[in-house]
Amino acid sequence: MRLVGLMAAILGGSSLLGCAEAPKRLYHWDGFQAQLYQYFKGDGSSPDEQLRVLNDQSQRARASGAALPPGFHAHLAMIYLRLGRDTEAKLELEAEKASFPESTQYMDFLLKHMTGSKR
Amino acid sequence: MTISAYPLGDAIARCGRLLVMAVVVATLGACATATPYDYTAYKQNRPVSMLVLPPLNETPEVVATYGVLSQVTLPLAEAGYYVVPVSLMDETFRQNGLNNPAEIHDVSPQKLREIYGADAAVYIKITQYGTSYAIVASDTRVTVQARIVDLRTGDLLWQGSASAASSENKSSNQGGLVGLLVQAIVTQIVETAADTSIVYAGIASQRLLSPKPNGILYGPRSPNYQKD
To answer: Looking at beta carbons, which residues of chain B come within 8 Å of A98?
Structure first.
């Protein structure tokens, strides 16, 4: 009885350690978090360079049929806002809302405050 | 066998001994298995979305807050939660005059819910971040702790901590004491210059915020939702 328990613990433990096959990821992460870090650090790549890298990633995700993570479109919106490209920012906020309806309240808050800021 | 002159006293004494034995056995039983986390509040609230606030930084590394913040979306999203976009969130706080994590952690749950619409907020504190030189070994280490609070009810859903360090994979074998000292200095310079802290921030964040025994539960976007 005790030996069975011990064996179960070892097998269970080894799958926790990742010896079993890794579960398939929900999203295509690529360099997204590295780009977030670049953005926050502020002393790395330029906004234009960050946009280029992120748009390349977006194409790779589309090519492999993988889903972009929560916040990906929204982060593109943030960079567009920094560059004063409000129309593209709005499109990305709408894309975030469409992909993740949980974001609706915050996306609507941002869209509302955007339309008031120009002129 | 002796025949006692006080049978009632003996009976009481025997019960007392049994009671002491029962208590001892129960205590030993409790030591044998770790106390499982009480998920009552978590399962009652079942948040769908998470707002990760800029982490409090208790280390001398200024970059720690954004190092960790840039790494938390992955484990929470893969666990099945929507994560409020961290760069937009940070900008919204700044535009409202909130520039540091201490102030941000003081904002009321009601206000956070009103603006960001998230079901729960994650309050992170960083207690170690960076590369230290410690005599015969250098170590890059990130240690984080988190509380998850439901923004609708104010309930504490979960708390935990995690750490990741470069010394986990290193073997200490070559060249005696001098060899170790040199290796430690070189490691510290290389690891500091290369900003390897971000790597360990990523590992620590994944260890902190991934479903596991006594860890967070799966969220609604995960195929494992409600299976834990």
So the answer is: none
